[in-house]
Every structure is written in structure tokens, then in C-alpha cells.
Design goal:
With about 475 residues, the protein is α/β, with parallel strands linked by helices. The protein has 4 domains: about 1-160, Alpha-D-Glucose-1,6-Bisphosphate, subunit A, domain 3 (Alpha-D-Glucose-1,6-Bisphosphate, Chain A, domain 3, 3-Layer(aba) Sandwich), CATH 3.40.120; about 165-270, Alpha-D-Glucose-1,6-Bisphosphate, subunit A, domain 3 (Alpha-D-Glucose-1,6-Bisphosphate, Chain A, domain 3); about 280-350 and about 365-375, 3-Layer(aba) Sandwich (Alpha-D-Glucose-1,6-Bisphosphate, Chain A, domain 3); about 380-460, TATA-Binding Protein (2-Layer Sandwich), CATH 3.30.310. It is built from 15 helices and 23 strands. The strands form 4 sheets. Strands 17, 18, 19, 20, 21, 22 and 23 form a 7-stranded antiparallel sheet that branches. Strands 1-5-4-2-3-6 form a 6-stranded mixed sheet, with helices on both faces. Helix 1 crosses helix 4 (about 135-140) and helix 9 runs parallel beside helix 10 (about 300-305). The mean pLDDT is about 95.
Length: about 475
């Protein structure tokens, strides 16, 4: 049962089979044991070092799952701090604010309503994934029956005022004072942005926010809470155009990711958004590092260099992005998936801070969103294309062999760069799939090279 719920970066599955309260309690025990052992090994033996922060999203089964999780944590000896109904980045803040041993959010992010799970962070909100602690949690959980004595304590804590102050450090003073105005359409996807938006931004004088799908207490999604699927952006796109808003933003279920649409209702690629936002951070701190995932347009690294920064490519996934951010002391970073990372947020991602950064940068630049992004639209991108293949490694080897003059690296899957065009091919962790992203100077070249490369990768999966 347990092996079905543990994924590469978190715990996630359908409820009640295979994820239920019994499994949640055992996972709580495993997570508590790991986090407390790490605290002891690091010599952190104070009262705060036995604290583990827990929160939950709006899914109907989250309350019962988090109760079972807390029981397991207390079995392991942890003192549980319950911060209630919160977005996932709230947990990252709370762990650092309280100097706790770690934190766990009960959520299934962008998955359909029948899913749930746990996102686990260690001290300083550093991520836990397979190969970096999640496998040990699974081992501890598998060896535990989940009916021991509740050794640790439990208490509730309201940190919304402190969280608001933390997020507002990224918000333009003119918006806070109301000296200037910004009209924004926000689609919360019936997720946790429906909770944090009113609490953090609802009474900011300079923000005129039109809410879409803020209701999150009915256990229903008007559309799938995944902003990477273009169909899920239709409401926010229509709203921006109809209301003549400055910008639109759509969040995922647990509000750690978001997508932006410009004033014309056109979605903005998160890599291009990273390049644009990086310019603002670099204007304040010349020479700083910026991280981006290796699928990003070459315009990202070019703009970072042109703006006086140091670009750093990273493997895809928040575990790797956060690690690269700490390694390089990156002031900011972004991922195609809509995660944006901030040094002043403990190198963690935050949808709320991404929102604040976007509206603040747009206010500063004096342009429309489409005008501001246009300089980053230097190349044509294929978008991600999936291929079914039983031997993923053989297909990637064939790609490298087919272009012997290319610069090739295996940072994440395989990237081949021939100057005029380049592509990255990554294997799925869980399926017999390869994922292709290709970029070139124009649409004709991209179409030609996608067809050429496709012959090496297997059967194309049509959406």
C-alpha cells in the first residue's frame, strides 16, 4: 500500500485507496522520526527543534488526513504546531519563522479532487524527495503499525499577520499606499489562493482584484486546478479582456504555482516571465545569480547576462531548483511549471510572492504586460511533446549519436545544442515516456527539427 503513495517529490494518491487515515498516521510517524533524527544529528536540541509545522488545503478529506498525520508525528515524539487551512508556501514561512524541525502540508496540488497527499520539508524548509529523505520516511512508515503512544504535544497557531508582512516585502510601496492602481483578474482555481488572496491582498488600496473561483469549501473544481493546461486559463483570459485589466493570474490548487496572462489575454511562458522579473532583481543587486530550469528559452540566460546577472541552469523539479538556488545564493529563479523561487523567501517558491513581484514589476516598468515581455520572445518554442518508448535510454543515446557535432550534456535527460536550434529530452519518472522541448529561430525550423527528432524518440502522444 505504501509504495503506491510515495512519488519522486512527495506523497500523493487517491483517497481512500490507497491513501487513507491509517497510511497517513504511519507516514506521520516516518516523517517525524526522520526530522527529529536530523535535528539531533545537527546538534539542534532546543524546544523549537522538536516542533513540526502542519497545515492543510481545502480538499474534503484533508481534515481527517491531517489529524491522522499529527497522531503519527506525535508518536515519533514531535511537538506539532497546526497552522490550519493554508497554502503550501505558508508552511515554508512557518517552518523558518518558528525555526522548526520541518513542516508538512496536506495537499495534492493540481490533481483532481479525489487525490490528496503530503509535501514534506525539513529544517529551513529544505525539500525532502526520493534520495534525499523521502525513501527513509517510507522505510520507517513500513515498519510502523501506527498505534503507539502520543508522546509529543499539539497546539494551534495563527501566523497570518506575520505571513502577510513577509509577503508584502515583495509588494510595491505605491500599491500598499494606494498612490497608484493596478487592475488584476485572479483565478484561484477553487484552491488555496481563494484563502490567501483576501487575507494578504484583499485590502491593499492599490490593487483592484476581480476574483474568479475563490470558493474553496465545496469540494468542487470549476476547472482542473492546473494552470499549465491552457483550457484552464480560459476564464481568466476572458476576464482580463472583458474588464480591460492590466494582467491576469491563475493559481494551482495549493497556490505554490501560477500562470500569467497579459492584457490581451495571451498566456506568458514562465521562462519568459523569469527573464523579465530577473531584470528587476538584478537592477537592485548587480552580479547576482538567477536560476532557471534547463527547458527554458535561451533568451532567459541571454537577458540575465545582459542585465548584469549570472545565469545558472538547473534540473527540473523543486527539489533540484531549491538546491541550485542555495548552492549559487540565487536572488531569484523560475521554472516552466510556474514555480518561482526567492532568496528572501528561504530559497523557496511562492505563488503569493510571484503575484506581488509581477504586479510590482509591471507598475515599475510603465509598459503593458505584452510590451514588457516582448523582448524575451526572441525564439520559437515547440512546447512539451511526449513520446511513448519502452527503452528511454536507447532513444536518448540515438539522439546524441544523430548529431555528433552538437554540444551535448546530460544534466537532466539529454540536451543537444547545434547553435541555430537546440532541444532537451527528459524521461518520465513513472511512465514509458520521453518529453521533448525544442527551440529554434523560426517556426519553419522548429517544425522541421521536431519532425526530424521525433523519428528517434518513439510514438508521439497526441493531446
Amino acid at each position: 500500500m505504501l509504495e503506491k503513495v510515495f512519488k519522486a517529490y512527495d506523497v500523493r494518491a487517491t483517497v481512500p485507496d490507497p491513501l487513507n487515515e491509517s497510511v497517513a498516521r504511519r507516514i506521520g510517524y516516518g516523517a517525524g522520526r526522520l526530522l527529529l533524527e536530523e535535528a539531533e544529528a545537527a546538534g539542534r536540541t532546543g524546544e523549537a527543534d522538536r516542533r513540526i509545522v502542519v497545515g492543510r488545503d481545502m480538499r474534503p478529506h484533508s481534515p481527517s488526513l491531517v489529524e491522522a498525520l499529527k497522531a503519527g508525528l506525535r508518536e515519533a515524539g514531535a511537538d506539532v504546531i497546526d497552522v490550519g487551512l493554508v497554502d503550501t508556501p505558508f508552511i515554508y514561512f512557518a517552518v523558518n519563522h518558528l525555526n522548526a524541525a520541518g513542516g508538512i502540508q496536506t495537499t495534492a496540488s493540481h490533481n483532481p479532487i479525489q487525490y490528496n497527499g503530503f509535501k514534506i520539508s525539513r529544517h529551513e524548509a529544505r525539500p525532502v524527495g526520493m534520495g534525499s529523505g523521502l525513501d527513509r520516511i517510507q522505510e520507517y512508515a513500513e515498519c510502523h503499525e501506527g498505534n503507539g503512544e502520543l508522546v509529543g504535544t499539539e497546539s494551534d497557531m495563527n501566523l497570518w499577520d506575520e505571513y502577510r508582512v513577509h509577503v508584502h516585502q515583495f509588494l510595491h510601496p505605491d500599491l500598499i499606499s494606494g498612490a497608484r492602481k493596478m487592475k488584476v483578474v485572479v483565478d484561484a482555481s477553487n484552491g488555496m489562493a481563494g484563502t490567501f488572496m483576501p487575507r494578504i491582498f484583499g485590502d491593499v488600496p492599490g490593487l483592484e482584484i476581480t476574483p474568479i473561483n475563490f470558493e474553496n469549501d465545496k469540494g468542487v473544481f470549476v476547472h482542473e486546478p492546473n494552470p499549465l493546461v491552457e483550457a484552464n486559463l480560459q476564464q481568466v483570459r476572458d476576464g482580463v479582456v472583458q474588464l480591460k485589466a492590466d494582467v491576469g493570474i491563475c493559481f494551482d490548487g495549493d497556490a505554490d504555482r501560477c500562470m500569467v496572462v497579459d492584457e490581451q489575454g495571451t498566456p506568458v511562458g514562465c521562462d519568459l516571465l523569469t527573464a523579465w522579473l530577473a531584470k528587476g532583481f538584478l537592477a537592485e543587486e548587480g552580479g547576482a545569480s538567477i536560476i532557471f530550469d534547463l527547458r527554458s528559452s535561451h533568451s532567459v540566460s541571454e537577458i540575465i547576462k545582459e542585465s548584469g546577472g549570472v545565469p545558472h541552469r538547473s534540473r527540473v523539479g523543486h527539489v533540484f531548483m531549491k538546491g541550485k538556488a542555495r548552492e549559487t545564493n540565487a536572488v531569484f529563479g523560475g521554472e516552466l511549471s510556474g514555480h518561482f523561487y526567492f532568496r528572501d523567501n528561504f530559497f523557496a517558491d511562492s505563488g503569493a510572492m510571484a503575484f506581488a513581484a509581477v504586479v510590482s514589476s509591471l507598475l515599475d516598468c510603465g509598459q503593458t504586460m505584452s510590451e514588457a515581455i516582448q523582448p524575451a520572445r526572441r525564439y520559437v518554442q515547440s512546447g512539451e511533446i511526449n513520446f511513448e518508448t519502452e527503452d528511454k535510454q536507447a532513444a536518448m543515446d540515438a539522439l546524441v549519436a544523430a548529431y555528433p557535432s552538437a554540444e551535448a550534456d546530460m544534466l537532466d535527460g539529454v540536451t543537444v545544442d547545434l547553435g541555430e536550434w537546440w532541444c532537451n529530452v527528459r524521461p518520465s519518472n513513472t511512465e514509458p515516456l520521453l518529453r521533448l522541448n525544442l527551440e529554434g529561430p523560426d517556426e519553419a525550423t522548429v517544425n522541421e527539427k521536431v519532425n526530424e527528432v521525433s523519428a528517434l524518440l518513439g510514438v508521439r502522444v497526441e493531446e
